């Protein structure tokens, strides 16, 4: 996996102050994507232990509410194995930090068992995160007034409740 960017002290991609990790690689290619350079799986730098240690060190600071993982596309199968390892480490070392993820894929179509982007680690990722913002960016549904989303079709899903109940539970509207 490659990393396109890491934003420190980010307040645009989730609640509170966050570290935002933009992974590289996306096959969706939404028209009007704000981060099209990250479609290339080789954009940025290779993810390694030094980057992971930097993320954990930064995230350990008291003013961070959590981390947001976006891209590119975190749920591209080639990215999921690295992401699950990062999430495992966060859950072990910084269990009080929240984890948000953004995906252009639709949770209850593409990411559940049988979905086109479901892998051996997808369920572990979904069980470990607090919030998933799902759905492709749709330029015809673009709305700059939305919080944490670019288009009206995208959902902010409470993953704890969703995984517990088996039905999509929206967090904020």
Plain-language structure description:
- The protein is α/β, with parallel strands linked by helices.
- Helices cover 27% and strands 21% of the residues.
- The chain is built from five helices and seven strands, in the order βββαβαβααββα.
- A seven-stranded mixed β-sheet has the order 3-1-2-4-5-6-7.
- Strand 4 (66-71), helix 2 and strand 5 form a beta-alpha-beta unit.
- It starts with a strand and ends in an 8-residue tail after the last helix.
| Total beta strands | 7
> How are strands sequenced across the largest beta sheet?
3-1-2-4-5-6-7
Largest sheet: 7 strands, mixed
Oligomer: single chain
Number of helices: 5
Radius of gyration equals: 15 Å
Helix share bin: 25-40%
Shape: globular
Order of helices and strands: EEEHEHEHHEEH
How much of the polypeptide forms β-strand, as a percent range?
15-25%
Low-confidence stretches: none
Structural class: alpha/beta
Intertermini distance: 32 Å
Query: What number is the mean pLDDT?
Result: 96
Write a compact overview of the structure shown:
This protein is of the alpha/beta class and 173 residues long.
Topology:
Blueprint: E1 2-10, E2 18-23, E3 45-46, H1 49-59, E4 66-71, H2 77-93, E5 98-102, H3 107-111, H4 122-128, E6 131-134, E7 155-158, H5 159-165
Parallel strand pairs: 2-4, 4-5, 5-6
Antiparallel strand pairs: 1-2, 1-3, 6-7
């Amino acid at each position: 996996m490659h990393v396109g960017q890491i934003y420190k002290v980010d307040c645009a991609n989730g609640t509170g102050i966050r570290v935002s990790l933009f992974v590289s690689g996306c096959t969706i290619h939404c028209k009007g994507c704000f981060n099209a350079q990250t479609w290339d799986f080789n954009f940025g730098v290779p993810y390694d232990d030094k980057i992971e240690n930097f993320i954990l060190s930064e995230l350990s600071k008291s003013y961070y509410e959590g981390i947001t993982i976006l891209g590119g596309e975190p749920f591209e199968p080639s990215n999921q194995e690295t992401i699950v390892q990062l999430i495992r480490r966060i859950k072990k070392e910084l269990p009080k930090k929240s984890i948000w993820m953004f995906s252009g894929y639709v949770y209850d179509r593409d990411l559940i068992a049988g979905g086109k982007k479901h892998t051996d680690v997808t369920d572990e990722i979904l069980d470990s995160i607090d919030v998933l913002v799902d759905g492709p960016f749709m330029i015809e549904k673009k709305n700059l007034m939305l919080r944490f989303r670019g288009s009206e079709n995208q959902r902010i899903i409470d993953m704890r409740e969703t995984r517990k109940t088996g039905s999509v539970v929206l967090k904020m509207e």
